[in-house]
Amino acid sequence: MMEGGIRVKRLWIALWIAALIGVPAASAFAEENGGAAPVSDEASYFRNIDLFVSGTEGYHTFRIPSVLTTAAGTLLAFAEGRVNGASDTGDIDLVLKRSFDGGRTWQPLQLVCDAGPDTCGNPTPVQDETTGRIWLFMTRNYGEDTIAEINAGTSRGVRTIWSAYSDDEGATWSEPVDRFSEVQRPDTRWDATGPGIGIQLRHGPARGRLVIPAIGRNLQSDDHGATWYESGRLPGGLNEATVVELTDGTLMRNDRLSANQHLKRRAVSTSSDQGATWSGIEYVDALIDPICEASIVRYRPSDNAEGDRTLLFANPAHTERRENMTVRISYDDGLTWAVAKTAYKGPSAYSSLTVQPDGNVSLLFEGGEYTPYDKIMFATFNLAWFQTPEADLDRLVFSDGSLTPAFRGDVEAYTLALYRGTDRVTITPVASDNAVEISIDGTPASSGVPRTIDLNNAETIEVETRLGERTRSYAIALDRTRAAPELLTHWSFDGADENGIPDETGRGHVGILNGGAHIRPGMDGDALYLDGRRAYAEISNAEELHPGKENFTYSVWVNPDALVQQRHLLYWYGSNGKVPQWWFSVERNGAVRMNMYGLPADREIGVATAPGLVKPGQWTHLAAVRDDSVNKIYVNGELSATSVKYDGEAMDLTNRTVPPLVGFDKGVAANRDWLGYMDELRIYKHALNDADVRKLYWHGDRTKPTTAAAASPGEPNGASGWYTSDVTVTLSAADDLSGVARTEYRVNGGSWTAYAGPVLLAEEGEHTLEYRSEDAAGNVEEARSMAVRIDKTAPALRVSANPSELWAPNGELTPIRTEVEAEDDASGIERIVLDSIQVDDDGGSSPGVESREEDIEDAEFGADDREFSLRAERNGDGAGRTYTIKYMATDRAGHVAEATVEVFVTHDRSPSSTNGKE
């Protein structure tokens, strides 16, 4: 008891240290400024490590993370250790790792609960701050019982809730105790605690109560764990649960949906009477969810003196797939979620949050390179990390090879596996943030623009990104040791007849049509059609198609008529039962599945994609790949699912009892045959790499890309389609199938140039900009063109008059002929007009004849008039009269120039009477 009190005091000291470094100030700022917290002066910190790795430490898979920080600062990281497979049932233990230094180092794995061949899972711990005792709640069921059987009442038993405790920081644990009679109704069949963590209340008459979230209610103890009972019931339709206490003592539940799952949101319910009654469900739009467990935690205790209302929430922020593990902050007890930051961009699922005494936040979560269940990782970060933008790439695409791990953007070290002899590779970086600057091997690069690299003797490719002061370096190690795959079978189905399907490799793997299988027009030429009622094709001469322990690739285009059975088999090697075999199928929900059973492991490896990827009436490319220690499924050229890693030497598939069959169900029920079309079937020895699978998909691309050009200004800003300024042309290309590989342009028939950004046209004159694109399948678009005419300069205009002097001033009209010269090197002269003739008399001191309109005769203003008459007259004794004749010239772009010429009527011809003219 005394030791527990000392631990509590240490915790409060640490929390007050956290307060001194500015956490409450940030929350106060947030409350006064609409929930937006300022950027901390503290340096951004983020660290992520692998803590539990599937396939190690005696377990096939680790799942269901839970992490608790004790009052003394010890980190307890719990997980389910699944012995024989990834299934939710079977031989499952509860395991634990501990850290005494904030997660930098960890003690060896401990076994907390081992129920023999049965299931022990859903860890949900809580610490009693008064006694220091750590309670761990869990669930147990027979390993042979599935959730469907338990719910249906056909199982051997039901799922029960148990608890254990530790008084020594998790070093040892009591024997688990069955709590069924206390916290489960007699008719309960399926149940679950958390998973995650519990809390201890700090407000109201129930202060000190221990609370463990469970399906539909909380489990509570008011006597430090001696006895437990149920809270009031929540509304129905909820599943895996989390709970927090708000600053005013309100309890808030945040649950996964078991009903209304189409909403893809988190469900929130609150209790203002410490769990006795609960509000209705609110579906929080800000908290999108793919229907998965999530975690929520207070940043500081609910009774903190500063009223800090900060909550943290973590889940895979996606509506369709378990990926993009995201942490969110609320500064107002969960009313709004002001800030979100991705902690892991790849596949990810269950999570658990905890706050350490130094103010750092830790996240224990499931994730992996290809599936969310490859490992359980432990990330630690500070609040400044939330406010710091990352200089990440969204994608890094290579023309050849396979990248390991799958590119995520927040991982910096990769290996690109290439075939022997590869001497160049094209790399395309993609960044959705236009402010991210990119360089490849030190040379600036543009997002979405392919760059071809001559490899020579290079061992790495270096990609660097910069966003403000943040930089990220991606090191791509090159492995050019892999042998190119060997094509063993190729059925295009063109030329097939009643004698079978020819093997275009020449190896003699002819397809034998059975059960009404026949050839019909397909995707491009002919295709195989199977009616779903025992029609199939048998592959003859199958000796070299026995995969054994070696890699292989199976590739095919499919177009189902319908998906009506549990699954529809595309390919089955081996025979039915627990014998060496592998098969490939499309499930009724549109998912794609690959299963393998091998020896001497005597075990099954299964992997399936998300549903909906294959649709009836639509051609889809599928590939199944055995690649060393993983199985992969590609859909339309993209890696869509990967199995957990396995021991390849222990998975020998050799089975010579039955030939490989295409579209046929070898099972006892025989009701899962293929219904629809198949085309372009290929089987390879060796595993195809990512780029090769994409190219097989692109092989079905017969459509050329399309490129659009947009000029700025958007419309000619001069007359008659001419621009009067520089013009910038932006090209954008699209290709729905294989994607755009490159775009190029040329100006006025010059050399073709790779498009890397907007094209500036500044020279005056008429230009023809040609452009085209090529897609990754090699389809080249016919060149398109855009005419751009630029004239930025007004015409040159010169005018002279003959005669330029009228003598004598006798009042007679004198014919005048003007010569007008106009030039424009760009758009050319559109028109020339006589604009005006102005008369200026120097009247002198004596009255004389006044100027009149009749002094100008036969002048047609507004027309190109170059002959008219002017009167030789002047007024009084002034110096004389000046006629100013103005012409205007307009070019085709709308530029206007003007020029004048003067005709003089002098007073006399004495030197003093020349009107200032020589």
From TrEMBL:
Listed Gene3D superfamilies: 2.120.10.10, 2.60.120.200, 3.30.1920.20
A Gene Ontology molecular function term of the record: exo-alpha-sialidase activity
Lineage: Bacteria, Bacillati, Bacillota, Bacilli, Bacillales
Protein name: exo-alpha-sialidase
Biological process terms in GO annotation: ganglioside catabolic process; oligosaccharide catabolic process
Substrates-to-products reaction catalysed: Hydrolysis of alpha-(2->3)-, alpha-(2->6)-, alpha-(2->8)- glycosidic linkages of terminal sialic acid residues in oligosaccharides, glycoproteins, glycolipids, colominic acid and synthetic substrates
Annotated segments matching region Disordered: 838-858
Domain LamG-like jellyroll fold: 550-691
Assigned keywords, A-Z: Disulfide bond, Signal
InterPro entries in the cross-refs: Cadherin-like_domain, ConA-like_dom_sf, Ig-like_OmpL47-like, LamG-like, Sialidase, Sialidase_fam, Sialidase_sf
GO terms for cellular component: cytoplasm; membrane
SUPFAM superfamilies assigned to the protein according to its UniProt record, in alphabetical order: Concanavalin A-like lectins/glucanases (SSF49899), Sialidases (SSF50939)
Record EC number: 3.2.1.18
Family, per entry: Belongs to the glycosyl hydrolase 33 family.
Signal peptide annotation: 1-30
